[in-house]
Amino acid sequence: MSAFEVCKAHIDAILTFAAFGLPRHLALKADKLDEVGQVLVDANVESVNYRYNEKDAADPYHFCRVRTLSPVEMLKALDCLEYQCCEPNDWKDSIAKKYIDQLRGWTIQALPGYDAAPWAIDADDAKRGRANPNVWDGFSERPGFC
Predict the structure, then answer these.
(1) 5, 13, 107, 126: least CB-packed within 10 angstroms?
(2) pLDDT averaged over the chain?
């Protein structure tokens, strides 16, 4: 496995989406952007240091608004950042991981069609034809599928 320090623009893009790309009730408040950004930068630098046995210090982080990512771009950016931060043994319990997980959950809720989708699927829903003809239907070809 390898790790690298993402550029500042990567963190800025994540936080721009978190503040301006989410519904207002989910959006990260402006007064938290520098703090959350610093946590993410620190985790990234710590991971690279851990991986390569280095002792580099993280630069101070100050938020700068950039273009707002699409929800899919945001999910990919979060996946990249998480991969670059996951080297230390305590990663799973870190505040940075909690932030990334929360941002991922909020981003999923921002996906087009999420609010309109049913909360629970009942038997009638499960038997209906596909709502989206672009979704792969390979599961219906598997033995034992009811």
Answers:
(1) 126
(2) 90
